[in-house]
Amino acid sequence: MADLQSQDYIRRSATNLTPPSVRHHELEVAKLIDVSRCIGCKACQSACMEWNNLRPEMEEFQGAYENPHDLNPGTWTLMRFAEYEDEQGNLEWLIRKDGCMHCEDPGCLKACPAPGAIVQYANGIVDFISENCIGCGYCVKGCPFNIPRISAQDHKSYKCTLCSDRVGVGLEPACVKTCPTGAIMFGSKDDMKDWAGERIAELKERGFQNAGLYDPPEVGGTHVMYVLHHADKPSLYSGLPDKPHISALVGAWKGFLKPVALAGLAFAAVGAFVHSIVAGPNETTEADEAHARLEMEKAKRNGSAES
Amino acid sequence: MSYPKGTIVRNSTLTLVNHWITGLCFVLLTLSGLAMFHPVFFWLSNLFGSGQWMRALHPWLGVCLIVSFLGLFIQFWRDNLWNRDDVEWAKSLDKVLDNREEEVPPVGRFNAGQKAVFWGMALIIPVLFVTGILIWEVYFGDATSIETQRVAVLIHSMAAIGAILIWITHVYAALWVKGSMRAMLHGWVTPGWAHRHHRKWFRSLVASGSPGPTPDSTAKFRD
Ligand code: HEM
Ligand code: SF4
Ligand code: SF4
User: Fold this and answer.
1) Disulfide check for A174: which of A51, B72, B95, B121 has CB 3.0–4.6 Å away?
2) Ligand 1 centre and the CA of A54: distance in Å?
3) Is residue B147 part of a domain?
4) Above 0.95 for ipTM, yes or no?
């Protein structure tokens, strides 16, 4: 939400030349969500609503712990609950805080047609600048994590901002501040990776052989990372993608097609112009009119001969 | 509509109105669509007030387009059926392009180029309509899966480029062949124009004594 200055941008949607980022010293930040420490209290969900002044509509109970049942324009982060029976027959309750992953290579930004409606700051945060958003929903198609939601009220797209407004003034995101178990950490991406390494070693000692960090390289890594006890099977966690990547369809649409189409249109326009110079207009001549008159008169003579 | 003496009716008044409604919708759809397709065209969104207005308007223009085009389709499809003359005409395309139409085999109300434009649009506009509905966020954003919408938006943009290419050909042909614009603005052509470009059509009118646009139009030649 916060519109930092353009000097802070490293990517800007629908922009052929992103202004050079002159703020080099910016550290890449990351939020680390340690799923193994989360108790599912939803304090982060409430803190997000509170800080961002969001009051999503009350929903019907859907028979699950998720509340509301899905992300929506007023719910930027959502606790998702999955029951999993492991190999030993133990029931595991896998609770994941869902929300924007702040991809290093954001599919939403790639798909967005409105200049500057989606930007990425030098610290890695992917932010929606709502005043530029036209509400087309392309970001929904671009995102590999099914995150953005379009508001039916103002037709603008919404998602987690990683509290860019708080981070911009040196505060941690609201969810991080509020988490009672320390399951959400925030800092430089390097520090968060180090910290995750320690946690993963601990989890492995406790018997979770496949514990690991979720920082998917297919999208260049993310600025929201998870510590998972089953990092070999991310999809156990309410469908977290195993190998998230920007769809090849989006790649064709936004990569290949754009220059080819432009060249095709230019070719057609130039071709028409060249033809008009080389061949000139196709005019009806006096001879054509004479031929036509002759045939019409003949037809009339025949017609009057018949009657 | 009244026509100058000794002219031939190329298009009925209904056709003219129907054609220009279709054309207006198409041009506005192209301008708004291109603005969303490529950043170099985004400034075109200002023509519609704002990006939000443009995004909201585009699909409704699309609905107008398909209805309006259906009207044109009903009026034109019969005269656009493919026949042997079209093959002969197409073989002489080089002469057509060189303005040597005297040497080109005669054709009916439409030539093969015009028929290609007609059938191209008749194919692409429904594709644009169906894919456009699928990506209409406001009403159908939740109706299909995201993957379906990814396919739809890719097809929509490719189909749109195809339609715009056909449209460029269509507009250029109308400017190149003098007298065509008048046929679509005022509805009439001179006998010489009809004889030069659509001789079989011209002869069918002369033989039936019809003023056009089709031999079965009842009124007799005015002279
Ligand atoms: C026939 C009915 C049509 C419908 C229902 C329709 C609908 C849509 C919708 C819903 C969008 C997404 C943006 C928005 O929500 O406004 C869109 C985008 C677009 N439309 Fe259409 N449209 C139609 C016809 C056309 C035509 C005739 C053209 C031009 C020849 C066109 C060109 C485009 C382009 C270029 C885009 C942008 C695609 C991209 O971003 O790559 N559309 N259309
Ligand atoms: S998770 Fe989706 S919305 Fe968030 S940055 Fe990545 S592509 Fe964009
Ligand atoms: S809805 Fe807004 S943010 Fe999303 S792609 Fe469209 S203009 Fe960009």
Assistant:
1) A51
2) 32
3) yes
4) no
